[in-house]
Amino acid sequence: MPTDRTTYPTISRNLLAALVLVPLSASAETGAAPIKPLVQVDTSLIYALLALAVVQVIFILAMAGIMRTMAGPGAWVNWLSGKGGKAAVLLPFLLLLAPEASAQAFVDNSATITNYQLFWLLAAINLFLFVIVLAQISVLRGLTRAITGSDPMEEAPEPPKGPTWLEKIMAGLTRQVPVEKEQDILLNHDYDGIHELDNVLPPWWLWLFYFTIAWGVVYLINVHVINVVPDQDTEYAQEMEQAKIEVAAYMATLKTSVDETNVTVSDDPSVLSSGKAIFTQYCTPCHGADGAGSETSVGPNLTDAYWMHGGDVKDVFKTVKYGVPEKGMISWKSQIKPVEIAAVVNYILSLKGTGGPTQKAPQGDLWQEGGNSAAPTDSVTTAADTARLAVR
């Protein structure tokens, strides 16, 4: 059926749109499960394909102009009479189709095309344009060959291969004599049939040897003559001093990470003063201002030698930190920092034996350094009363 020059692009666009839209519409009509997309399509990918199509159209138009310029009198005849005759049938199609390649794809206004469908449509258009570009390149090569009588794409004969740069470097580093020239350096004696070659020392070995000599001279002058670089003994002493400074700085940071496993007793006045301030702020409501409590106070006496949960510094730290909720002692770890807990614990331990006449009766067990005496509270009540009378 005869068609005009605009029929081919129209048919191609309709065919591509049908290839993309028909399978999707068929699955929708039959009620089948939607097919999972092969690629994830977004707007940036659509724009990229559209830009690629525009670039190819510009290239096609430029190539068409070049071919029209080159097709002067006699050029087409020479090319058609040669090997280009087989591809001559493509030339009118390429020249006529190029201006139409930038036309937009046909989309039916009655239906909405999705990004996924538009992606495959643009991909097909780009593929079609790429085929046109390849065909134009083939035609342009034929025209060039017809005009100049030579093929610009023909590869020039390779020059004779010489040694590669790596082979040159290895030859310079080793100065190895080729096998075919070993007779020139063959010595006139052998050992049980083993011949000896008079090879020179490799340059890399000589350079390394000369470098060690130069380094030895520099080291001797700097270390033992002008003393710019310290010797090993001096450098060791300097490193040890620096290590002590770094260890002290590290130990200083550990003060803020104190816990019940590494807390220690301290009689530092600044620590005790800080602990007293914290004790006054948080502990006096239950233990009294002097820590000895009274018969009406909630907390136990902290100045005697009796402890309900251990009298060691680690035990007291643990009690303050985690508390004893079942006996009314709350946990202070969320309100007081670990270093502050250590300060208040050391202040509490410094209160031993300072209780007055109104101090609360002993509770818990008698604590002695190194362990608990296991003496029950009831058995020592009389002794505590006697000691209180003695104080009076």
List the helices and strands and how they pair.
Elements: H1 7-30, H2 43-70, H3 75-81, H4 90-97, H5 115-148, H6 165-174, E1 186-191, E2 194-197, H7 203-224, H8 232-254, H9 269-282, H10 284-287, E3 306-307, H11 313-322, H12 338-350, E4 365-368, E5 371-372, H13 381-391
Antiparallel strand pairs: 1-2, 3-4, 4-5
Tally of DSSP helical segments: 13
Mean pLDDT over the full residue set: 75
Termini distance?
A: 133 Å
Any idea what the radius of gyration is?
A: 49 Å
Global morphology = flat
Ranges with pLDDT <50 over ≥5 residues? 1-33, 83-110, 373-392
Summing up helix and strand content along with how strands pair, one would put the structural category as: mainly alpha
Multimeric state: single chain
- The total tally of domains equals 4
What is the tally of beta strands? 5
Describe the structure.
By secondary structure, the chain is mostly helical. The chain folds into four domains: 7-148, no CATH class; 163-226, no CATH class; 230-259; 269-391, Cytochrome Bc1 Complex, Chain D, domain 2, CATH 1.10.760.10. It is 53% helix and 5% strand. It contains 13 helices and five strands. It has helices at 7-30, 43-70, 75-81, 90-97, 115-148, 165-174, 203-224, 232-254, 269-282, 284-287, 313-322, 338-350, 381-391; strands at 186-191, 194-197, 306-307, 365-368, 371-372. The strands form two sheets. A three-stranded antiparallel β-sheet has the order 3-4-5, with no helix packed on it. Helix 2 runs parallel beside helix 5 (115-148), helix 9 crosses helix 12 and helix 11 packs across helix 12. The longest helix is centred in the middle third of the chain and has 34 residues, at 115-148. Mean pLDDT is 75; it is low at 1-33, 83-110 and 373-392.
